[in-house]
Amino acid sequence: MTAEEVREKRAAGYHPWDYYNSNSNLREAIDLIQAGQFSHGDSNLFKPLVDALLKYDPYMLLADYQSYVDCQDRVSKAYQTTDNWVRMSILNTARMGKFSSDRAIREYSEVVWHSKAVKVELEKYIHGDAGFKVETTEAVLS
After folding, report:
1. 69 and 114 co-located in one domain
2. Do residues 69 and 131 share a domain?
3. In 130-142, which positions are buried (b, 16+ CB within 10 angstroms) versus exposed (e)?
4. For the whole prediction, is pTM greater than 0.85?
5. Residue 41 is part of which domain span?
């Protein structure tokens, strides 16, 4: 959804239950979560999550669910054509410009949290299972 669509839905009165009731795949997924299918039968484990989605859904996840599924279907189809997938992957990487998760986290830390990096001393670690030696003495966490 676009920002404008979100504003319009909020202004019109967003009701997550409408999406739950009108989309059988979404309803089935939520019902499986609610029934404990993904929590070893514990139907209470994800109850707060299910309740929040069905009653409030502040991020409009239910409203955006079908567009997510549709997009994932397009991705799956694109992946089936290897040459096209490789071309798209290379172009996407080339066009992404300046991005680094380290830089993004550092910038977020400085701009949003107004915090500074902390120097962390680590013990030497030798990873024997992989057949190579990695020695680490310090790291900087942002």
Report:
1. no
2. no
3. eeeeeeeeeeeeb
4. no
5. 3-95
* 17/83 same-domain check: yes
Q: Distance between CA 105 and CA 119 in Å, rounded?
A: 16
- Give the C-alpha distances (Å, rounded to integers) separating 79 from 18, 34, 71, 72: 33, 32, 12, 10
Give how many domains the chain has, as a whole number: 2
Residue 88 pairs in a beta bridge with: none
CA distances from 46 to 10, 31, 110 (A): 26, 11, 34
CA-nearest of 38, 36, 16 to 27 is 16
* 36 and 12 together in one domain: yes
Tell me, yes or no, whether 38 and 90 share the same domain. Answer: yes
- The whole-angstrom separation of Cα 109 and Cα 116 is 7
Q: What is the pLDDT of residues 18-76, one digit of tens each?
A: 999 999 999 999 999 999 999 999 999 999 999 999 999 999 999 999 999 999 999 99
